[in-house]
Every structure is written in C-alpha cells, then in structure tokens.
Amino acid sequence: MPLPKAELHLHIEGTLEPELAFALAVRNGVTLPYADTDALREAYRFQDLQSFLDLYYGLMTVLRTEADFEELADAYLARAAAQGVRHAEIFFDPQAHTARGVDIGTVVEGLGRALDRARERHGVTTRLILCFLRDQSAESALETLEAAEPYLHRITGVGLDSAEVGHPPRKFAAVYEAAAALGLRRVAHAGEEGPADYVREALDVLGVERVDHGLRCVEDADLVARLVRDRVPLTLCPLSNVRLRAVDVLEEHPLPRMMDAGLLCTVNSDDPAYFGGYVEDNFAAVRQALGLGEERLRELARNSFEAAFLDDDEALRAAYLAEVEAYTFP
Ligand code: HPA
Ligand SMILES: [Zn+2]
C-alpha cells in the first residue's frame, strides 16, 4: 500500500493517456496526426515547456462532450487512488476548450460528474481549480472567470498556467482581484521556467496561497527566507522538471536542499500521461534518485495535506494526517 497523500498539482488534461485519446478520437470523428498510440508516445520528446504545450493542446481536441470529460477524470481518479492519493486538487484549462467551441459548462459539468462520485468510487476527495492560460490576454481571463460564474459552486480556486516566460503574474492582477472578491482561493504556476521574481510577484500582486513549481526560488535567498517564514507551500513536480528540462537529471533536483532549507515542499505529477508517471511514481523516483529516507517521504505526505484546501473540513484533514503518521513503509 503506497503512502497516503494529497495531489495538489495535476492538470486533468495532462492525464489523457494515448489509449483514451485514440478511443475518444474515434468516438468524436477527430483525426489525430499519429498512426497509433506508439507513434503518439514517440512524439513525447520535449525540449522545453512550449514543445510540451504544443502537443498537450493538440491532443486535447479529442475532448468534446460531458461524457469525455467525465471519463477522463474518472480514469485519473482510479489511477490516483491506486497510488495512495486520498485527496486531489485538480486543475483544468477552460480556455483550451472554449477556444475550439466546447462550452465551459460542458467541461465543468463533465468533470463534476466524475468528482461527485470520486469519494464513493475511489475513496478520493476532490477540489477543482480553474486555470487561466497566461499566454492569452488578461481580458480573456476575465471573460473566462465571468463564464465560470454559474459553476462556482464546483470551483474552489483559480490558478495560472501555460507558457510562463514573458507572461509575468502582474498581467493577471485584475482577474485575481475579481477571483478573490468571489471567495476563490488563489494559486499560480511561477518559477518553473520563469525567474524567481515571478514567484515574488505571484505572492505580492496575485496574493497566491501556494506556488505551483516555484523551483527557481532557490536562486533568491531572500525569497527562500520569506517562503520558509510564511510557510508558503510549493507544489513540485520532479518528473515533469526532468522531461521539460527545468533540471538536467533527477539526481540534481533541488528537492532535498529545499526541504533542508525548511521550505514546505510537496511532490506531484503535473501531467502524468506525458511525463512518465503518476504521483507515487514521482515519490518512488525521488526516493531512488535523491536517496530520500522514510521520514522525508512522510514529511512530503504530511505537507500535502497541510497545504490542501481542506479548511472547510478540518476533521478530514486531521484524519488524513493521522493516516500519514500511522503509515508503515513496506
Ligand atoms: O507544467 C506545466 N506548466 C505550465 N503550464 C502547464 N499546463 C499544463 N502543464 C503545465
Ligand atoms: Zn503544472
């Protein structure tokens, strides 16, 4: 039985496995530019974030109906549960769908159907986080938030993803202010490919409570001190960092140094269908490559529940944390 954990950095569109992509392509009459699943997997040789995003946005054109989004989310939840996930905070990218004529309601209601049954079916509690695409305009982000208003009962927070460099957090100050006024929690990708300054800006200008990735904070000692002092969680994704060349090899990932510095680190899968593994695969990889001991792994699991948006159910958070403490490694 794997270590119980929360997954806090997971793009649902990034869980689209080649087999499901081809099945949905057939169902929806979409022609993919790959002969078969092996040819598609062959294309997963990324140079950087952009080369990944090109494939990621291309493949998700097979997602068209509520049933498609439901099936996608249900398949993720089944895999996540098998990897010890008790609680998942799931990102989705509405603009990637509305831009090709799929209504935001189709996306949210489809995902929602799977999430409504997640606890009963898979023993996983869930939250949904709407992400704005930072390479789209600030106006488009505001329109997206407006379009989401009928579905806010299903949405816990907002995030910011897609191509980072050249799209600093401050571009989205207005939409984050509007999201806060609606009572939404705030997170943002920062410091994945972008500089440490983007992490600071996400905190100062967007008011984020967690930083997604945040890897490059290590280049700025004052920023690290602040993140430690304020216990700002970082949602790290080690296998993603290797695949997208944010680090050269896993053995050089700064995770152990970051934990030693007192940063509140979590380990997550990001886009598991593309990056070679789900969350327990990431735990196993860092355990192996970085020599993390059992207490470090337990700390990562504890951190994941501490950083989760479970403030509306502290009893549940306490139950999850108790499970982490009671866990015995095989
Ligand atoms: O790893 C990522 N980074 C930025 N945007 C993304 N959208 C999906 N995955 C990612
Ligand atoms: Zn991400």
TrEMBL record:
Binding site for Zn(2+): 9, 11, 189, 270
Sites where the protein binds substrate: 271
Keywords: Hydrolase, Metal-binding, Nucleotide metabolism, Zinc
Family the entry assigns: Belongs to the metallo-dependent hydrolases superfamily. Adenosine and AMP deaminases family. Adenine deaminase type 2 subfamily.
GO molecular function, one term: zinc ion binding
Protein name: Adenine deaminase
Catalytic site positions: 192 (proton donor)
Cofactor field: Zn(2+)
One GO CC term, this protein: cytosol
